[in-house]
Amino acid sequence: MRLVFASPRLSFSLVAHKFFTLADANRTLPLVKRVVQDIMTVYPQWKDLVDRYGLVASQARYGLVASQARPEWGESQEQLSLKTEVDTVAAKINGYLGELEQIGCEFKGFDEGLVDFHGRLDEREILWCWKFSEDRITHWHELEAGFAGRQPLPEVMSRT
Fold first, then answer.
1. Of 77, 94, 83, 80, which Cα lies nearest the Cα of 42?
2. In whole angstroms, what is the distance from residue 99 CA to residue 139 CA?
3. Which of 44, 48, 46 is CA-nearest to residue 90?
4. pLDDT for 83-92, tens place per residue?
5. What's the confidence (pLDDT) of residue 64?
6. Domain edges within the chain
7. C-alpha triplet 113, 117, 122: angle, nearest 5°
8. What is the spatial distance between Cα 107 and Cα 43, in angstroms, rounded to a whole number?
9. Considering just the CA atoms, what is the radius of gyration of the chain in Å?
């Protein structure tokens, strides 16, 4: 049996993207940074709860805790309680992700706080790439390149 938790979602919608100039994307950063800080504060809690649930479930399944070794009875009270906590924290994270969606940017990474903004560079669609530790946007990448394809902004743009 596979367990499915409500988990934080990284959504990729098929609707038209909002396009940002570099200056516009940088102007959103104070708000984006606050939302990403909230995500990065809560996400480790979600991971910890999921790990704790997995441990409790394993112990119950394999009879490591005699009082919980009743797989035919379903989940223990502790498992149900942890599952509720996991879902609550996931809902909070999903709310934060929705805030970023409303701004028009895309959250791409829980560990480093990665955010992409659709933009244009030399007449082609690109992504302005920002991570939580940066004061402003200093990199970009091609649509399919991802974080590994990050490139510094052209010198003329990095002064803006």
1. 94
2. 23
3. 46
4. 999 999 999 9
5. 56
6. 22-158
7. 135
8. 13
9. 20
Question: How many CA atoms lie less than 13 Å away from 129 in the CB half-sphere?
Answer: 21
The two structure tokens encoding residue 87: 């879902």
119 CB-near residues (< 8 Å, 6+ apart): 19, 20, 21, 22, 25, 125, 126, 127, 128, 140
**Overall residue count recorded for the chain in this entry:** 160
pTM check: above 0.90:
no
CA 112 to chain centre: 9
Closest CA to 18 of 76, 98, 101: 101
CA distance 92 to 49: 14
**Looking up tokens 């560079």, which residue turns up?**
121
pLDDT for the residue numbered 15: 54
For residue range 22-66, list pLDDT tens digits in order: 999 999 999 999 999 999 999 999 999 999 998 888 877 766 554
